[in-house]
Amino acid sequence: MKKSNLITGILYVLFGVACLLTALVIETKLEGILWGFAGAGIMPGLVMIYQYFYWSSPVNKERYAELMENKRIEVHDELKTMIRDKSGRYAYLLGLLVISFSILVFGILGALEVIANARMIVLYLSAYLLFQFIAGVVIFNQLMKKY
Questions:
Q1: Single residue among 29, 46, 67 that ends a domain in this structure
Q2: How many structural domains are present in the chain?
Q3: Biggest alpha carbon distance in the chain?
Q4: How far from chain centre, in Å, is Cα 44?
Q5: 23 and 61 share a domain?
Q6: N or C, which end of the chain has less CB nearby within 10 Å?
Q7: Contact between residue 95 and residue 131 where contact means Cβ atoms under 8 Å apart
Q8: Which residue range(s) make up the domain with 105?
Q9: What does the pLDDT profile of the chain (147 residues) look like in tens digits?
C-alpha cells in the first residue's frame, strides 16, 4: 500500500483532533460543526491508518496485489467506463431538474408567505443552477479539446 495513504490518514486524525480541541476549548456557535468535523476527521483517519498497516503486512501483500489488479481491470473496462459516463450525465441532468423544481417550490412558498426569506433561497438556487449549467458546458468543451 502506498505511503501517501498513511500520511493522509495521519493528516485526517490531526485535523480531527484539532477540531476536537477547538470545540472543547472555545465556546462558539460553530461548536456543533467542529464536533462533526472532529468525528469526520478522526474516524476515517484511523481507518486509513489501520488499512495501511493491515495491507502492508507481509501476510496480506499477495492478497492486496490481487485486489489492486482486479481494481485496475475494473477501472479500465470499456463497458463500465461508458456506463459510468452515462450515469454521470443522468445524475447531472437530474440535479438540474431538481434544482429547477426547487426554485419553483420555494418561489411558491415565498409568495404564499409560508417561508420567510424565500427570495434569498430562490436567488441562491438560481445562481447554483446557472453555475451547474455553465460548468457542464465548460467541462464538455475542455474534454472535446482534449480528445
A1: 67
A2: 2
A3: 66
A4: 14
A5: yes
A6: C
A7: no
A8: 78-146
A9: 789 999 999 999 999 999 999 999 998 888 999 999 999 999 999 999 999 999 998 999 889 999 989 888 887 888 888 888 899 999 999 999 999 999 999 999 999 989 988 999 999 999 999 999 999 999 989 988 988
Cell 465556546 belongs to 27
- Is residue 13 within 8 Å of 20, Cβ to Cβ? no
Whether 72 maps to a domain, the answer reads no
Distance from C-alpha of 115 to C-alpha of 99, rounded to nearest angstrom = 18
Residue carrying C-alpha cell 501517501: 4
Question: Residue 89 corresponds to which cell in the numbers above?
Answer: 450525465
What's the whole-model pTM score? 0.62
- Spatial contact of 106 and 126, defined as CB atoms under 8 Å apart: no
Are 5 and 50 a contacting pair, CB within 8 Å? no
Domain limit, last residue, from 19, 42, 67:
67
On whether both 82 and 139 belong to a single domain, the answer is yes
